[in-house]
């Protein structure tokens, strides 16, 4: 068994959350080592699939997120400048379409007003003229947020890895961590043939949280992403349709003329890593059945590409950001409940500050793991 020592922080799991943790730790001048069982960006976890939405107007589980959404936007804008050649953020705007009686409409309006973000309410007629290809019922309302943006996921992950290489972060990809152990003054990280030691560790395992034996409740929800030619479904803004009848579909335009229009829909999860990453014909038929009532063109459009993606949902949709049970030298970040990309820059900062025992002004009690014991 080899033994490698001398790191300030080990990051285990190199999805978007772990990458930001590594980035901020290195920015502080810390010696960082990063592990991933695969080579990011990969299609087995949650941080892949061309793009992600960042919106101000979104159903958050608590008002506590109000200042955090503003801060995370600022951080994304600064990343947009740092990684300028990437064109990281594409401002397309987003329209969320809900049933007219849905109480979330009022909540989203209040949220937007509190944030002082411009928005427009669209009735069925304007929605129909705006999205003539979609079947818009008479009983829906749209909330338009012109400032919403799409993040270029995979090019950004590649750029962060290149940045890490330039800044001497050893990336240990395709190296699975089998165990992490806290000692009074250091942490050991065990892989198949090497024991590493670091002063501290940040564990960001995404959907693999349950493999750590911590007994933290998490539900995995598999989403299927499909791409059709832009000519089949030309859109200029993102559209989220959430009709309270299990119809939850998101449409993403593709401004860079790559891959076409993206459609995301829920598919029931079959257990196990292999089945999560594979897509069956039944999955595609199930998704087509969901999309058809909203966009009948799905039956005629050629399928350019498809990928699964896993969401890790907590029981209350608040994240898990906490110390490892029994140790202040290890922190864990998981359960990002469909909003991990948006908050990743901020979460990465929190994780680093926590593990370095540096003060954090925000009240993060919402994210403590033991809050779940109090949920009935
Ligand atoms: C279809 C879809 C659409 C989404 N849309 C949005 C959106 O529009 N906006 C938004 O903000 N969020 C969105 N999300 C959610 C967001 O993508 C996730 O919250 C985020 O990517 C989670 O990142 P993560 O780093 O926690 O997990 P992951 O990206 O899964 O990373 C975890 C990493 O840990 C590694 N790992 C696990 N165990 C080990 C081990 N033992 N040893 C070594 N490595 C290990 C894995 O290989 C993996 O690379 C969406 C998610 C999906 C599935």
TrEMBL record:
Molecular function in Gene Ontology: flavin adenine dinucleotide binding; sarcosine oxidase activity
Cofactor(s) required, per the database record: FAD
Name this protein carries in UniProt: Glycine/D-amino acid oxidase
Lineage of source species: Bacteria, Bacillati, Bacillota, Clostridia, Eubacteriales
Protein keywords: FAD, Flavoprotein, Membrane, Oxidoreductase, Transmembrane, Transmembrane helix
Entry keyword Membrane: yes
Transmembrane segments: 7-25
Residues covered by the FAD dependent oxidoreductase domain: 8-353
Keyword RNA-binding on entry: no
Name of one Pfam family that matches: DAO
Source organism per UniProt: Sulfobacillus thermosulfidooxidans (strain DSM 9293 / VKM B-1269 / AT-1)
InterPro entries assigned to the protein according to its UniProt record, in alphabetical order: FAD-dep_OxRdtase, FAD/NAD-bd_sf, MTOX
